[in-house]
Amino acid sequence: MDAELTALAAAGATALVQQMVTDGWGQVRDRVAGFFSRGRDGEEDVVAGELEEARAELAAARDSSDAEAEADVLAEWRGRMRRTLRADPAAAAELRSLLEELSPGSGGERRGDVYNNFSGNVEHGVVIQSGSIGEVRKG
Description:
about 60% helix; two-stranded antiparallel ribbon; mainly alpha; single chain
């Protein structure tokens, strides 16, 4: 396997592990499961389950400050990405596209969902909300 694909696998695994602890994880998990399943029936759900297990392992490792266990999660997914790229070199273009979506500051940057909840019997005051939806700006 050439150095470019090895580097791509490492970058993909790093981005994946970083995304495991973000609010947008559900969408990332589904996209990555699709990447690894390569369109095989039933495989996407299996991979999504494996990704969830890895996320739980990563969370436990971080909670216990276990850097070695964190490194194990990264190494596992780096190896899987390498094997996927080795088996299907055309998957490199898909992985590059996925990395572009996940990279901070890219046009495809994923922003977290926002939920506003107000509770109680009395609300006094003004509520101002602003944000943007695509090219539409509110606020």
